[in-house]
Design brief:
The complex is a heterodimer of chains A (about 100) and B (about 900). With about 100 residues, chain A is of the alpha+beta class. Chain A contains four helices and three strands; from the N terminus they run H-E-H-H-E-E-H. In chain A, about 65% of the residues lie in helices and about 15% in strands. Chain A has a three-stranded antiparallel beta sheet with strand order 1-3-2. Chain B is globular and about 120 Å long. Classes of the chains: A alpha+beta (about 100), B alpha+beta (about 900). The interface between A and B is medium-sized, with 22 and 25 residues.
Chain lengths: ~100, ~900
């Protein structure tokens, strides 16, 4: 979920585009399956961290675009701080132990 | 705060579900198109349907969908077997209905707050700790004060509490068709403001009216009294006659307002400084703690001079909850009503239990019959919990339907009950209606839920076990003997039979008690006795004129032809309302005998003769002793004489009346009571219906003490003419003085039949017999239901048997025998329960023992016969099975 928020923090995207972006930006390492994406998007909507709206995409298609909200940005920051802290701790453990 | 937003979003989803689901579908389609376009192949998107479901579930409303689905399916399934559904609902309606009915009764009498803000109102009572020099002295509690005490209390707590005082008395109120003696409360001006919305119209008493007391001639009437007078909106300012005097109505109490206790008075009068025997209640001021009030009371307590010379403990004032049931007529009846109340809720609960056992069995049987259906559903993916939920929903629907009908039945029944209680009450009293308030509704839902869990949960779980392949193929009729299932089913039937027997036996004991009490020998001659109540106070007579009235009426009644003897008394024997005194011997008396509590009655001449009792020794009162100023004499009964001077003659001995524990409120403490000489002995009569042992009585003549309300007793020469004489006696009394109201003229037989004690026994008998009958019905239905299903499950077996050559009669007997065996086991257990119940009931039921052979033989026979009858029809059906049809393979 943090990944989705991070992607949306940069720009508003629709479902397929989000999946694509994650795949691209992570240098093809991470791929998010639709089975996880859509439930995650629903949860983000419930919590009010993203908003959704239908609009015309560049290719002329009707797509439902997700936009991050201020509350979502705050959540993203919290989660990133938490993740970095955990990653640092794990790194220390792996190096020193 | 974010939570609120989240819930708001969840709720808005609920409202727009369809639209949002569509959006999701479109979105996923678009995603898939795009993916296919980009990849150039139909890549697997994943199961869109499942994804949509998962997304939907994320919003958290899945349970609602499931519930809707379960309910719809349950309604359909139950609708397919209307016979079962109706039987189940009827069973539940009975079981839940009796519980609601009883709960309504208990709720009105004991639970429901009598008025708004009830829990804040407290009463003040005084406690005297035990005499430090006497370890066996438990101390004493008193609740009554003088007006001066009340003012003291009020001023001492003025800034932390509102206080009010109330005293209960009887007055004669003119309510249209003659004067009726009714309950009245004399209250301080602060009384009505103590409660929220206690007045429907008008105002409370003012401080000035309180200063004048009754002389202010103002009154507040109760709501029912206002309604009885025509519910005139212009009632304020009208006049109502109280004790013969006109009082101005200045207010009408709110509907259902009875003060702090039930029953409540018909009229409220202003208290005055001369009043004694006041009950003090109060309400804390806003923001005051209970401790602050307790402390204030503790400070004031020692100022009160409450200790009588005979008590030496420490006196303190405490707060307590006001007693709720005010009118408890006598020691034994109080125990009776308390025990009945306790038993009241147990019995309906047992009926409900029987109903639930019934239903559990039926559901179990039905579940086994549905095993194929459930096996199919389980194999296509229905989880066990889901299936169980489905069955539970069915059960819940049944319970709620049963509960609703039960509520309706209960309201009918309680309405009927209230209709029978009104004519039996001793005086004009106000009782709140047995209404259905939120507590009763909550109770209904609670009972329904409890019932559905009780009978539904376990069968649901048992029946949704993992499906076996054979289950998919198996149909009803080919079950064969499944020992596990049968055992449980039989155990349930045993339980039902045992509980039914318990209720039947208890009902039988109550019936016996009711019959015994109605035909009990009271210890004096009942036939040919008449009673008439008069009260000169109601005509406004003082003591001198009252005495004259009493004697004049006595003389007049003696002249009526057919009247053998007439007497007069301050209370009536064998009734539960009477006065009592502590009687102690004076002079050289047995040191062990300190005092004996005896019923105290002021009587005229010929008392023993009118009652048909012989004089055991000594003489009757003389006319001189009926006038004040004569020597103090008394007649005692042999029970009292035996207690005070065992083995010796009581004649000529001196007795005295000890002052009652704490005679608070008297202006001056009573002097040492002057001695009284015993001049006659008569046989003891029984105290009351509930107390069969002869109770000590002491009788003093009219001259010694004045009591305005007296009852005349007449003995007729011809007992069969007693009903005809009623009018004659009434006319005779009125001919003496037409201002003197005649309150009641009745025969002894009529009085006993209408008495509260008898009514209680009778109602108890009716109620418990009804419970027993309902339980019997339920058990019979249960046995029938179980046997039906058992037989239908075993048609193949019976078919084979008869094909091999077993005669139908043998098959019939086999089924009956099986049923009978189960019933007998249930009866044995039930007998044990019945005896235990009998031991409890015996202590407060009149005239029955714990083991009454009549009851303990009849009830089981009835049960056995019924259950055999119930098994008969299914058994017959077993014999009708066509062997060829049954043997045919699926």
């Amino acid at each position: 979920m943090m990944l989705v928020l991070r992607v949306l923090a940069k720009q508003s995207l629709h479902g397929y585009a989000i999946a694509q972006r994650i795949h691209q930006v992570s240098a093809d390492e991470l791929r998010i399956e639709e089975g996880s994406l859509y439930p995650a998007l629903q949860k983000l909507l419930i919590k009010g961290w993203v908003k959704a709206a239908w609009r015309q995409s560049d290719s002329g298609r009707e797509v439902r675009e997700y936009r991050i909200t201020p509350a979502g940005r705050r959540q993203l920051e919290d989660e990133m701080v938490e993740y970095r802290r955990t990653a640092r701790a794990i790194g220390l453990l792996l190096d020193k132990a | 705060m974010a939570i609120i937003g989240e819930w708001f979003r969840r709720l808005s989803y609920l409202l727009r579900r369809q639209a949002m689901d569509d959006e999701l579908r479109r979105e996923m389609e678009a995603h898939r198109d795009e993916m296919n376009q980009a990849m150039g192949e139909a890549r697997a998107f994943g199961n869109t349907l499942r994804l949509r479901e998962e997304s939907r579930d994320a919003w958290g409303w899945r349970w609602l969908d499931d519930l809707r689905q379960d309910t719809r399916l349950a309604v359909r399934t139950l609708g397919k077997t209307p016979g079962f559904a109706l039987t189940a609902i009827a069973t539940l309606a009975l079981g839940i209905g009796v519980n609601i009915g009883m709960f309504t009764f208990v709720n009105t009498l004991l639970l429901r707050p009598l008025h708004e803000g009830a829990d804040e109102v407290f009463a003040v009572h005084g406690r005297t700790t035990g005499d430090p020099g006497d370890p066996g002295d438990p101390g004493d509690v008193d609740t009554l004060y003088s007006y001066a005490n009340y003012i003291d209390l009020r001023e001492g707590t003025a800034d932390i509490a509102h206080l009010a005082a109330v005293s209960t008395t009887f007055v004669g109120v003119d309510i249209g068709e003659g004067t009726r003696r009714t309950l009245a409360d004399a209250v301080s001006s602060t009384y009505f403001p103590l409660f929220d919305r206690s007045l429907a119209r008008g105002r409370s008493f003012t401080a000035e009216e309180e200063r004048l007391g009754l002389s202010s001639r103002v009154a507040i009437i109760s709501y029912p009294l206002w309604r009885a007078r025509g519910a005139d909106p212009g009632v304020l300012g009208q006049s109502v006659r109280v004790d013969g005097e006109p009082f101005t109505v200045i207010g009408v109490a709110a509907e259902g307002f009875t003060g702090t206790a039930i029953p409540g008075p018909q009229v409220w009068l202003p208290l005055g400084p001369g009043w004694r025997q006041l009950y003090v209640i109060g309400r804390p001021r806003a923001g005051t703690s209970v401790e602050a009030i307790a402390t204030a009371l503790a400070t004031i307590g020692p100022r009160f001079d409450q200790a009588s010379p005979l008590r030496r403990g420490v006196y303190t004032l405490e707060m307590s909850t006001p007693s709720r049931l005010m009118f408890m007529p006598g020691p034994v009846s109080k125990v009776l009503t308390a025990s009945i109340t306790a038993a009241l809720m147990i019995m309906p609960a047992i009926v409900l239990l029987v109903a639930c056992l019934n239903l559990a069995n039926l559901l179990l049987a039905r579940g086994h019959g549905r095993r194929q259906e459930l096996a199919i559903r389980s194999s296509v993916g229905g989880g066990r919990s889901r299936l169980t939920r489905q069955l539970l929903t069915e059960g819940l629907l049944l319970s709620l339907a049963g509960g609703a009908i039960g509520l309706w039945l209960a309201s009918l029944a309680t309405g009927a009950l209230m209709a029978t209680i009104a004519p039996v009450l001793p005086a004009g009293l106000v009782i709140p209606d047995l209404t259905v308030d939120w507590r009763v509704l909550a109770g209904t839902v609670g009972f329904s839920l409890a019932a559905s869990v009780l009978f539904g949960a376990w069968p649901a779980w048992a029946v949704t076990g993992r499906a076996v392949a054979a289950d998919l193929k198996r149909r009803s009729g080919e079950e064969g003997r499944r020992p596990g299932g049968m055992r449980i089913g039989n155990a349930l039937v045993v339980g039902q039979v045992a509980l039914s027997l318990l209720l039947l036996a208890s009902g039988g004991l109550f019936l016996m008690s009711a019959i015994a009490s109605a035909t009990a020998d009271p210890g004096f001659r009942l036939e040919g006795g008449l009673l008439a109540e008069i009260d000169p106070d109601l005509a406004g007579y003082d003591e001198a004129r009252g005495r004259a009235s009493h004697l004049a009426v006595l003389d007049r009644l003696r002249t009526i032809p057919g009247v053998e003897a007439v007497t007069i008394g301050s209370s009536v024997q064998f009734s539960s309302t009477s006065d009592s005194r502590d009687v102690a011997p004076v002079g050289a008396a047995d040191a062990r005998v300190r005092s004996v509590g005896a019923v105290f009655t002021i009587v005229g001449r010929d008392y023993a003769r009118t009652l048909g009792l012989p004089m055991l020794g000594g003489r009757d009162f003389t006319d001189a002793e009926l006038a004040p100023g004569s020597e103090r004499v008394a007649i005692v009964d042999d029970a009292l004489a035996e207690r005070l001077w065992p083995g010796e003659s009581a004649l000529g001995r001196l007795i005295q009346f000890l002052p009652e524990g704490l005679e608070a409120g008297r202006a001056a403490p009573p002097e040492a009571a002057p001695p009284i000489r015993v001049i006659g002995i008569i046989p003891a009569v029984k105290h009351s219906l509930g107390n069969p042992r002869p109770f000590p009585h002491v009788y003093v003549p009219l001259g010694q003490q004045y009591e305005n309300a007296m009852t005349l007793q007449l003995r007729l020469a011809d007992p069969t003419a007693e009903r005809a004489m009623l009018a004659t006696v009434a006319r005779a009394i009125r001919s003496v003085d037409e201002r003197l109201p005649v309150l009641r003229v009745e025969t002894w037989r009529g009085r006993i039949d209408a008495g509260l004690d008898v009514w209680l026994y009778r109602v108890g008998a009716r109620v418990f017999s009804a419970f027993g009958a309902i339980a019997l019905l339920l058990a019979v239905v249960g046995v029938y239901g179980v046997k039906s299903y058992t037989v239908s499950r075993r048609t193949r077996e019976f078919g084979i048997r008869m094909a091999i050559g077993a005669r139908p009669r043998v098959v019939l007997w086999q089924v009956l025998r099986e049923g009978g065996r189960v019933t007998v086991v249930g009866i044995v257990i039930g007998l044990a329960l019945a005896v235990a119940a009998g031991r409890i009931l015996q202590s407060f039921l009149y005239g029955v023992d714990a083991v009454e052979p009549v009851v303990l033989i009849t009830a089981p026979l009835v049960l056995l016969a019924s259950s055999l009858l119930a098994s008969y029809i299914p058994a017959l059906r077993a014999t009708k099975v066509d062997p060829t049809v049954a043997l045919r393979a699926e």
